[in-house]
Hints:
Number of helices of chain C: 30
Strand order of the largest sheet of chain C: 1-9-8-13-10-11-12
Strand content of chain B: 15-25%
Shape of chain C: globular
Shape of chain B: globular
Oligomer: heterotrimer
Distance between the termini of chain B: 5 Å
Largest sheet of chain B: 2 strands, antiparallel
Structural class of chain B: alpha+beta
Largest interface: A-C, 26 and 37 residues
Strand content of chain C: 5-15%
Amino acid sequence: MIVVNGEELPWHPGMTVQQVIDAKRYTFRMLAVWVNDVPVLRERFATHTVADRDRIQVLHMISGG
Amino acid sequence: MRWLKTYADRCIGCGKCAEVCSTTYFKENNGACSRIQVTDPGAVRTLSVCNQCGTCIAVCPTQAISRDKNGVVQIDKKKCTSCLMCVGFCPTGNMMAYAPKQSEPFKCIACGLCARSCPAQALELKND
Amino acid sequence: MTHEKIAPMKVLQEWSYVRSPIDRGYTRKALYVNVGKPDMQIREIPQETIDAFTGGRGFGLALLWNAVTEDTKWNDPENELVISGGPLCGITQYPGAGKCYTVFLSPLSEQTYDSNSGGYWGPLTKFSGFDAVEIAGKADRDVVLFVNGDEGKIQILESTLPESNAYTVTEALHDYLAADEGDKVNISVVSAGKAAETTLWGCLNMSFYDPRRKTARLKQAGRGGGGTVLRDKKIVALVVKYSSVKGTENNPVDLSTLQKVGVKLHKEIRDLDNVQCRMRKVGTPHLNEIMDEYHLLPTNNYKFGQNKKDIGKIDSYTYEKIFTQGLPDGCWYGCSLACAKAVDHYEIQTGPCKGRSVTVDGPEYETVASLGSNIGVYDPLWTVEANFYADHYGVDTISLGTGLAFVCECYELGYLDKAKTNGLDLSFGSKDDLMELIHRMAEGTDDFARAVGLGIKKMKKVFAERYGADGAVLEKIGMEAQGIETSEYVPKESVAQWGGYYLTLKGPQHDEAWLIFMDMVNKQLPTFEDKAEALHYFPNFRTWFSLVGLCKLPWNDIEPADNHVRYRPQDAARVPEHVQNYVDIFNAVTGKQIVKEDLITMAERVYNFQRLFQVRMKHGNAEHTIPARAMGPVFPDEWDARKEYYDDKLREAGIAPEGLSVEEKIEGLRGHRLEQWADLKDAVYKRRGWNKKGIPTEETLKKLGIAFPEAVAVAKKYCRPEDEF
Lengths: 65, 128, 725
């Protein structure tokens, strides 16, 4: 189990940041991802794997309107 | 199309081209005013100058940039509003700006003065 | 659009003036014209006004404060339209620097409104010598006010224009006043349209000439009814002419820095826009499918936030194909974000312009939603046509769409029928009849159409009194507050956004704070204090743009490549590098030496002054309200559309959903959310330095340096001891 934006999400071995984003149905392009308080570059979302019990913040970098 | 071809491997880094360019158009020998840029004088040298690709033409909001009859991309200063979008969007970084001299951008117009002054034949004015 | 040349316009009044040069962003002059008397004055703007109000919206409020009393009505001759750009307005080196702000007493909210617009009016009037143009009085016939910056002349002309509709007026005046085709870029026209005379939703269309398309383009100061005020003054158009813009008219102290910072942003946009927001390709409609995905796209009068079945018909990729690609679509020189998209060679299908081939500005995201999903229409070309007529008739697309959405729901609830609508089927998605209603609103002869044009606040009253509709239901589903229709985001599920829309200066408009992602998705604002902090920072930060003449979009619709890894999440949302850009360009123009914290202080002065102005106009009762639909489901079908989600929300509120009817669940959640609203309001008022009634305290005015005697008098008059925190 991992925690994404304060909510639990089932984890599986080899799970990438992109898979986390897809599981949450986050489709916005301007996302900032922090895994255990360490930022992940957008280019690495598809390859960066997360570990069980990681705390993940997926931030939508928009203020809209 | 008239354009300036560069041969960086021949360049000896004397700076004559930049001097001729800036003194011709800005009456001052100042590298920041030169439309041709010679960089890395110590190691691998690069000669950077407009290749007349024309990307800037579509970017300009006032249609101040166009090709002349020789195919050279020219800026009409009367129409230019100094926004420098052309500088930001130039794919080769050869649209120049230097506020102490003028608000409008400037660029190589393939006049060939630098090529004539180059002692190493590192520059050639092409017409093809 | 083709048009006939107009007959020569008689000069009713003319004054000459000597153009004041701009020094470091300011001319320090305001042009006052009373079109009724008529009278013209050039008024000094003293240093104290600059220090306290900076410019733009600040100047507008300061000048309007002196022009009106607490009893002035929107249609009194004393009401003014004050249009001002601000010290950065008109620079060309940084994207989004052509904005101006129009301040007036609104026919909809009956208090001050400020509405911003692109186009060339702001820069060209400033270059003509004026930091602000203040228009008072009422003419006795249709007139055109002409500011001729080239010749130093102000003229009131007797209109010979065949009608007041925007495209007709704008194209005719660009033509009439230009020496030749190339001269047309030196002109900007402000117009409204026929529906600005027949509804309270009148917008101001501000033009710029597009030399590639060879046509005038229109940007709108859409909201609040400014166009209705313009037409009430019998002004058909304001026109300015100033030739040969060089881009250095503001006489900045440090052009090198302006160039350096601007080129940096141009490069950022060049490299990143296509992988970020695609503003250069589609403009704000890049949001269409994103808002739908996150249940934020208003659908059928905000009942729902999503329509999975039909979103593909109106997504950004559909609009990308409709918009002409590859043109430098900035609404002022130097805007490389280029979001002013247009549909070219569109053939009008209905109404008085039927058969004509036109260029339509937009639709922007707000219009895609308002004259689209919110009224159940998923036909982009219908939205394009509705957008065209809204602009042409001079009516705000947001209020129009949200208002029509309310009408459609009333129709489906049975409060309206064809007998009441004079033959129109106004169900959601009833495209042809909705278009017909828009035409009738402009014609102004149909009693039902006239009632719609009064806006939701007054419609609620009319529908209850005239048609016997259930007033309590209308209060719940009418998406207005302070008389202003809500713009196009579903705020229900973000408590912070309730504040972003409804704890605002002038009503539910998205120009103060858009906190839905920060709050609802990112979960960055867990406590009421966190939300209050965001509802202090963002409204003030965004107010700053309106003081200096800037557009908000280049702030966070593009971000530096490393923004998301360089800064902590809380800071990254503010786009720190761009904030520093603003500090740098402000200093480069004005020669001042501000730091980023000063942006907030500058804005706080005006923000609090405007709040006090509202309190003054409302005689102490400037209440913040929120409709039920804005904070949760009203009817069972809304709950059932996201049943699991709402059942969970009910559990979070400490109420077990099991065994409850849907109606009981709705009431349970509503009760909980009303408590949250009260807590939010308290936290926000406290953080802003206001009392429990939302009135800035004397102490707050002193702290901000705006304790002018007349401001303090208002605070003193309405602040009661029992309302202190």
